[in-house]
């Protein structure tokens, strides 16, 4: 029965990997045909919101993707995007690029204007330099909104200085009286005229009368402090609240833009049977790292173990004589052995729950290639250290990790040594890696070697995947 269960689980994992691989190749997450594409470099003063693997389009049609983003050392400090464009769409010397966005909440992409075909073609790895256009960032919009608010504040202050004093109010009242007299005279003139013979004059007089009345109502509201402009004139607290709201929105948007999320699902299969388990244990991990800043992060994890985890309960019993309610010394009773065992004061019960989940929550601090982590590991307190080995080439990435947790051996039956684990992740692609190492290697009976695989990707890849799936669905619907 157990063999059938393992077979089903293995088939499910293989099918899931096959589906993931198909989706990756279908939407272009994995690239093996780069020889059909030409590399170019596009530089912008501000490339905020543009991510790796984002689309590159010509006239709204996808022709490539953004391969990487960098900030080369130089005086201009421009962000450079290294893009791949299909060979069927050559670019010319006057080509230029623009950062665009699918919708208000959509992902950003690069729109390339190929240039004049009578000019020479751009060579591979050439830099597109002619008037590249950045998209309007949220920070620019907030600054513009702040400028509008400042102008409104200046206008309200001028109005307050003009009509806020007693002299201004008297002038305003005099102006209102003059307007009222003017409307009365206009009405009298219109009656004296043959208004039936001059309908245009009558209509103009009525319109002027309505306009003067509306203006009088607006000025009266301003004087009484009604409406937004009236409150801005008479209540400086409202003006301060507006400026505070704008600054708060700006800070909030900037903080959200700095947050980066990394997902890391992987599995580990042990080499030999585990302690108190007749089969090889398999563990699955679903991890998520949240980087508020590049130098520290929070990590949450869900761990599933086929062998399970140990739970212990302990009960303490006291026995009393029902006649005088005195404590009975069970060690001096003349009872059979089984009865003495039954009356043992302490009873300990150990339960092993198979195929159980545990939670982890850790805080990490990065120091370049070295990261330290503290918190819950497999549901117990511990610490870990990650080291990203600095190889001279970008084609090889190796991360080695040492973790220590469960320092009192709570998850073992008869061993109080800490749980030490050595993990290695070797990336065969940007996101896919193989893992191997030694688990619980200082324990008496549970030391084991393991191997496995995993995928590590960021929120940029998730946005790209969702936008690509949405685009594919839209194209299928249009067909």
Describe the structure concisely.
Helices cover 34% and strands 34% of the residues.
Kindly describe this structure.
- The protein is an alpha+beta fold.
- It has four domains: 30 residues; 103 residues; 109 residues, no CATH class; 159 residues, Lipocalin (Beta Barrel).
- Helix content is 34%, strand content 34%.
- The chain has a ten-stranded antiparallel β-barrel with strand order 8-9-10-13-14-15-16-17-18-19.
- Strand 8 and strand 9 form a beta hairpin.
- Helix 2 packs antiparallel against helix 6 and helix 4 packs across helix 5.
- The model has no long low-confidence stretch (mean pLDDT 75).
Please supply descriptive tags for the structure shown above.
alpha+beta; 8 helices; flat; ten-stranded antiparallel barrel; seven-stranded mixed β-sheet; 34% helix; 479 residues
Strand percent estimate: 25-35%
Coarse morphology: flat
H and E string: HEEEEEEEHHHHHEEEEHEEEEEEEEEH
The CATH class of the largest domain turns out to be Mainly Beta
- Report the biggest beta sheet as strand number plus sense, adding barrel if it closes: 10 strands, antiparallel, barrel
Low-confidence segments: none
- Got a strand count? 20
Secondary structure blueprint with pairings:
Blueprint: H1 2-27, E1 37-44, E2 55-58, E3 61-70, E4 79-86, E5 96-101, E6 108-113, E7 126-128, H2 138-163, H3 166-192, H4 199-224, H5 227-234, H6 236-258, E8 260-273, E9 280-293, E10 296-305, E11 309-316, H7 337-342, E12 346-353, E13 356-367, E14 370-377, E15 380-389, E16 397-405, E17 419-427, E18 432-439, E19 448-455, E20 457-458, H8 459-478
Parallel strand pairs: 1-7, 2-6
Antiparallel strand pairs: 1-4, 2-3, 3-4, 5-6, 8-9, 8-19, 8-20, 9-10, 10-13, 11-12, 13-14, 14-15, 15-16, 16-17, 17-18, 18-19
């Amino acid at each position: 029965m157990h063999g059938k269960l393992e077979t089903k689980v293995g088939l499910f994992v293989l099918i899931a990997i096959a589906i993931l691989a198909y989706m990756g190749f279908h939407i272009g997450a994995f690239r093996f045909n780069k020889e059909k594409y030409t590399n170019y470099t596009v530089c912008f003063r501000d490339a905020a919101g543009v991510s790796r693997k984002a689309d590159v389009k010509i006239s709204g049609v996808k022709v490539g993707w953004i391969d990487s983003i960098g900030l080369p050392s130089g005086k201009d400090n421009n962000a450079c995007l290294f893009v791949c464009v299909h060979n069927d769409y050559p670019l010319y010397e006057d080509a230029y690029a623009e950062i665009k966005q699918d919708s208000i909440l959509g992902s950003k992409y690069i729109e390339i204007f190929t240039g004049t075909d009578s000019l020479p073609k751009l060579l591979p790895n050439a830099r597109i330099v002619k008037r590249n256009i950045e998209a309007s960032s949220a920070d620019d919009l907030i600054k513009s909104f702040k400028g509008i608010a400042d102008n409104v504040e200046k206008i309200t202050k001028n109005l307050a200085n003009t009509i806020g004093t007693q002299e201004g109010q008297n002038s305003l009242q005099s102006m209102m009286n003059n307007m009222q007299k003017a409307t009365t005279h206009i009405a009298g003139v219109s009656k004296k005229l043959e208004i039936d013979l001059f309908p245009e004059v009558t209509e103009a007089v009525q319109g002027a009368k309505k306009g003067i009345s509306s203006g009088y109502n607006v000025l009266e509201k301003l004087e009484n402090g009604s409406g937004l402009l009236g409150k801005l004139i008479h209540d400086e607290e409202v003006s301060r609240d507006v400026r505070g709201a704008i600054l708060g929105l700006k800070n909030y948007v900037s903080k959200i833009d700095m947050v980066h999320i990394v997902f890391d699902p992987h599995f580990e299969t042990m080499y030999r049977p585990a302690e108190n388990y007749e089969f090889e244990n398999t563990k699955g991990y679903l991890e998520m790292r949240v980087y508020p800043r590049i130098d520290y992060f929070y990590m949450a994890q869900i761990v599933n173990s086929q062998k399970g985890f140990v739970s212990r309960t302990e009960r303490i019993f006291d026995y009393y004589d029902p006649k005088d309610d005195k404590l009975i010394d069970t060690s001096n009773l003349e009872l059979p052995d089984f009865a003495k065992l039954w009356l043992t004061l302490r009873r300990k019960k150990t339960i092993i729950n198979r195929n159980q989940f545990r939670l982890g929550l850790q805080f990490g601090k990065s120091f370049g290639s070295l990261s330290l982590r503290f918190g819950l590991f497999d549901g117990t307190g511990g610490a870990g250290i990650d080291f990203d080995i600095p190889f001279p080439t970008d084609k090889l990435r190796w991360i080695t990790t040492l973790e220590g947790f469960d320092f009192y051996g709570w998850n073992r039956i008869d061993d109080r040594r800490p749980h030490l684990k050595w993990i290695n992740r070797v990336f065969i692609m940007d996101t896919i890696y193989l893992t191997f190492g030694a688990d619980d290697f200082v324990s008496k009976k549970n030391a084991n070697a393991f191997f496995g695989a995993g995928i590590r990707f960021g929120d940029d890849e998730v946005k790209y995947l969702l936008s690509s799936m949405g685009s594919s669905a839209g194209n299928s619907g249009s067909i």
